[in-house]
């Protein structure tokens, strides 16, 4: 075989396939479209109108609930043994706020009712933590928060 001299020969090499810039732009557009679709889906679903207030016993849930119910009065707090429910109309939208008791024996009911059966009606969950007793009860707070997050994420 005869070899050709490599002097003076120009070879133009172009990469085969898609340019990385086009790929990045396409990915960015897909992410933006998916985000818009996600937020439109959440905005259009009218069924989710309930906000759930949960936390350990004596964490201040009923106090927050009382402030939402009547902003002008100082709410009387007490240990709840049943749900407190408040129906609100805010800017023409119907909302329901539920103060769920923090007693450990009622947590099964929380999971069964709100985090399983009524999950589709939940728009948000507020987990209340009392910072003054957190150091003493941090393990209980962590366990309860984990359970709520785990069960609310299931479909």
Helix and strand arrangement:
Elements: H1 20-44, E1 50-55, H2 61-69, E2 84-90, E3 93-99, H3 107-117, E4 122-128, H4 134-153
Q: Which residue ranges are poorly predicted, with pLDDT under 50 across at least 5 consecutive positions?
A: none
CATH class placement of the largest domain: Alpha Beta
Q: Can you tell me the overall shape?
A: elongated
Content-based structural category: alpha/beta
Number of domains: 2
Work out the strand percent.
15-25%
Q: Tell me what the CATH architecture of the largest domain is.
A: 3-Layer(aba) Sandwich
| Record field, number of beta strands | 4
Order of strands across the biggest sheet? 2-3-1-4
Report on this structure:
The protein folds into 2 domains: 17-45; 47-153, Rossmann fold (3-Layer(aba) Sandwich), CATH 3.40.50.300. 42% of the residues lie in helices and 17% in strands. The chain has helices spanning 20-44, 61-69, 107-117, 134-153, and strands at residues 50-55, 84-90, 93-99, 122-128. It has a 4-stranded mixed β-sheet. β2 (84-90) and β3 (93-99) form a beta hairpin. It is elongated.
